[in-house]
Amino acid sequence: QVQLVESGGGLVQAGGSLRLSCAAGRSIDSINFMAWYRQAPGKQREWVADITNGGSTSYADSVKGRFTISRDNAKNTVYLEMSSLKPEDTAVYYCNADHFTGIYWGQGTQVTVSS
């Protein structure tokens, strides 16, 4: 089992930056894909970005060039650096781990971007 705890959310003005962290309760060395998703009020959860163990990254078009995903296996942590934030980035952000024992989610962290 993989426990995930997100942190770093908050209220920020448009154009600002935030860094989200996702701390895993076990080594993430064996977790190839780790990702961030988000869910805005009244909308379905959507994929934001993911990163492989080898460091390959992918991004949704809506965040490309503004968000950066990274992982530190020594700290069992995945990060999402968000810059040039827009009001439409407002959502609960969830960490996701695709492990051979299953798919795991954190509890989410709220990001609110004011205009």
Characterization of the model:
The structure is a single chain. The relative contact order is 0.33. Strands 2, 4, 5, 6, 9, 10 and 11 form a 7-stranded mixed sheet that branches. Strands 1-3-8-7 form a 4-stranded antiparallel sheet, with no helix packed on it. It is globular and about 40 Å long. It starts with a strand and ends with a strand. It is an all-beta fold. It has no helices and 11 strands.
What is the typical, i.e. mean, pLDDT?
96
Question: What share of the residues does DSSP label as strand, in percent?
Answer: over 45%
Number of helices: 0
Helix/strand class: mainly beta
Helix content: under 10%
How is the main sheet built?
Answer: 7 strands, mixed
| Regions with little confidence, pLDDT below 50 for 5+ residues | none
What separation lies between the terminal Cα atoms? 40 Å
Could you state the order of secondary-structure elements as H and E?
EEEEEEEEEEE
Shape type: globular
Please compute the radius of gyration using only Cα atoms: 13 Å
**In total, how many beta strands?**
11
Question: Would you summarize the structure shown here?
Answer:
This protein has 115 residues and is mainly β.
Keywords:
115 residues, mainly beta, 11 strands, 54% strand
Write the layout of secondary structure elements.
Layout: E1 4-7, E2 10-13, E3 18-24, E4 33-39, E5 46-51, E6 57-59, E7 67-72, E8 77-82, E9 91-99, E10 102-105, E11 109-114
Parallel strand pairs: 2-11
Antiparallel strand pairs: 1-3, 3-8, 4-5, 4-9, 5-6, 7-8, 9-10, 9-11
